[in-house]
UniProtKB/TrEMBL annotation:
InterPro entries: Bact_solute-bd_prot1, SBP. Residues 27-45 have a biased composition (Low complexity). This is Sugar ABC transporter substrate-binding protein. Pfam families: SBP_bac_1. Keywords: Signal. SUPFAM superfamilies: Periplasmic binding protein-like II (SSF53850). Residues 1-28 form the signal peptide. It comes from the Bacteria. PROSITE patterns: PROKAR_LIPOPROTEIN. Residues 27-50 are annotated as: Disordered.
């Protein structure tokens, strides 16, 4: 890989954050037999007394992923990985999120071995596993000949590792305890979704940190009165599946609802979800920026918070670290993080967990070498060094004293405590179901309709349930 390309990708990664994507799924469980076109059909079986990082030296592998904050960590790992293993990274391609899923689908449909390592989100598994596009990793992980004895899987946060397991059966949950589940990706970087707030303004006006949506409305109305030109809270509203991750869906579900029942019947229009959407609509219309809300992506949330246009945001805490590490602004050093807000009671609080993980292309001809790259990039040593724009998936890295101190020095004194409290209620919050990327887009549009008043919350959510039933039942 040329230095010019690496530098170009680094510059690109420096201005992009939080790429999120999701895919649909099929109902059949994946076959355990690898595709016949593979040259290397299973992990090496030979044993060795000491782990040999040079075992596959001279091999060249290629990587494809989504443009975003995670790119920098991959790029920073290439040179030390090549030195340690003798494996060469031939090319690394980062693709805009909107195009990434289509790219992988095209590669997989032709059984292409062009790339060996994929970036994989939890919801990507809904599609990749049943379609047999991604390699199960259990055989690699359990083979001491090709697995570093210091890999220490127990160091990963349990939740982020758990959601890398699935059995590929439509309607069954992600997770290690699901019958027949296998490991399909190694946790690489992850985020949960919290409340971000201007600590200086909350101190100035003696405002308690909000715990409920009503608290946000009250705080927002006070700040809008005291700070002309500033609005209360920013939240993603642009019509895309990405919108669902940015706080709105988790807050709706804090009323106790879900997307499907146990029989995979859509229940988007449950009384609980209707109540949650009505409360979110009230919040956005009173203390958000309703005229621009439908155009808000994560980037507009970031820039409004950074420039002082808003006092709060419901989004990923990555935005807070980005502001703290970025150029001088009115908000630099003044953004702190709190647990996610809820509509009614704290026991129903929700947060979406999202991660970009690393997996192996099922059609790769160099799977063992790819497995070495996965181990290296997700290892404790690598996760504890280099860029921290995306949060480490290992406790040893995330809870290191130096990392905690850097957060406190940046004004985020409550970050780690809020992060740990949030992980306790974090979940994927989407049932693995056929058509996720499709009906998720419909859901985003109907949430827009309800917030902007073109439909009632009830009518909007009924439209989503009907759409799923008409197209996927």
């Amino acid at each position: 890989m040329s230095m010019g390309k690496r530098v170009g990708c680094l510059l690109l990664a420096a201005i992009i954050i939080l790429g999120l994507t999701a895919c649909s799924s099929e109902s059949a469980a994946p076959s355990q037999d690898p595709p016949s076109s593979q040259v290397q059909t299973s992990p090496s079986e030979e044993n060795t007394d000491s782990f040999d990082w040079k075992k596959f030296q001279g091999t060249e592998i290629n990587i494809v992923g989504v443009e975003g904050v995670y790119n920098e960590q991959i790029l920073e790992a290439i040179e030390p990985f090549e030195e340690k293993t003798g494996i060469t990274i031939g090319k690394v391609d980062f693709i805009p999120e909107a195009e990434y899923t289509k790219k992988v689908q095209l590669l997989a449909s032709s059984k292409s071995s062009e790339y060996d390592v994929y970036m994989v989100s939890f919801t990507n598994l809904f599609d990749y596993v049943p379609s047999q596009w991604i390699e199960p990793l259990d055989g690699y992980l359990n083979n001491p000949a090709i697995t570093d004895p210091d890999l220490n899987m127990d160091d990963f946060y349990p939740s982020v590792l758990n959601y890398c397991y699935w059995n590929g059966v439509n309607g069954t949950p992600l997770g290690k305890d699901t019958e027949g589940a296998q490991l399909y990706a190694m946790p690489f970087g992850w985020i949960v979704f919290n409340l971000l707030y201007r600590s200086d303004l909350f101190e100035k006006y003696n405002i308690e940190v909000p715990r409920t949506v009503d608290d946000i409305i009250a705080a927002g109305e006070l700040i809008q009165e005291k700070e002309p030109g500033m609005y209360g809270v920013a939240m993603r509203g642009f019509k895309s599946v990405d919108m669902l991750y940015g706080g709105i869906w988790q807050t709706i579900l804090s009323c106790g609802g879900s997307d499907f029942d146990k029989d995979l019947n859509p229940v988007f229009d449950s009384e609980e979800n209707i109540k949650g959407l009505e409360k979110i609509a009230e919040m956005i219309n009173k203390v958000s920026n309703p005229s621009d809300w439908a155009n808000m992506t994560w980037y507009e949330v970031l820039t409004d918070l950074q420039s002082g246009k808003c006092a709060m945001a419901i989004d990923a805490p990555s935005l807070a670290t980005w502001i703290a590490d970025g150029e001088d602004s009115v908000a630099k050093g003044k953004i702190d993080v709190a647990p996610p807000v809820y509509v009614d009671t704290a026991d129903k609080a929700k947060s979406i967990i999202f991660g970009w993980n690393l997996g192996i292309n099922a059609f790769s001809e160099k799977k063992d070498a790819a497995w070495y790259f996965l181990q290296y990039c997700t290892g404790a040593e690598r996760q504890s060094s280099g860029s921290r724009l995306a949060f480490p998936t290992r406790r040893s890295a995330m809870e290191a004293d130096s990392f905690k101190q850097s957060l406190q020095d940046s004004g985020m004194v409550n970050f780690i405590d809020s992060w740990n409290k949030t992980t306790e209620v974090a979940d994927v919050l989407f049932t693995p179901a056929t058509g996720f990327n499709d009906y998720g887009y419909i859901l985003a549009g109907e949430l827009q309709n309800a917030v902007l008043g073109t439909k009632s919350a009830k009518d909007a959510l009924e439209t989503v349930s009907k759409y799923y039933s008409d197209n996927y039942k």
